Amino acid sequence: MIIKIKKCNREDLEILQEISIETFNDTFKDHNSPENMKVYLERAFNTKQLEKELSTISSEFFIVYFNEAVAGYLKVNTNEAQSEEMGDESLEIERIYIKNKFQKHGLGKYLLNKAIEIAMERNKKRIWLGVWERNENAFAFYKKMGFVHTDSHSFYMGDEEQIDLIMTKTRL
User: Fold this and answer.
1) Is residue 13 part of a domain?
2) For the chain, which terminal residue's Cβ has fewer other Cβ atoms within 10 angstroms, N or C?
3) The whole model's pTM is what?
4) Average pLDDT in the 144-160 region?
5) What is the CATH number of the domain that holds 62?
6) Looking at 40, 97, 110, 142, which residue is catalytic?
7) How far apart are alpha carbons 46 and 146 in whole angstroms?
8) Quick one: average pLDDT of 52-75?
């Protein structure tokens, strides 16, 4: 088993788009209407939106490879790129997306450790993320990795308001 990670650039846009749509759809399609999924996927992962995210200075993407195959990616945000006002001492993990066929191989933990490494290099005091309240597997994973539920915020899937639990880790 060989795991590699590569920092993304503009040339990786199509790969990011494919992983984003596939993993988000696989994870959430059974819990949301097809109309709301379509609206969200088209808004969140269109080419223009991903180009904007890739060009944001305080955001970084990393593709993870499992035995040479594209398996998923990590997106982290600092400073003004964070999706919530968390201050300059925080790093946000906005996405850890792993394709279904590559789950249960430790890739989520691998990407989480990459985020912790980035936070430590930048002298951040905490890492935070939002996880959908009904995504029990993700919640359990982050809890096991030392994150605690500290807050919540609204997330819109099309026209439906949902709740994301804010989870924070301060022991890096």
Assistant:
1) yes
2) N
3) 0.95
4) 93
5) 3.40.630.30
6) 142
7) 33
8) 97
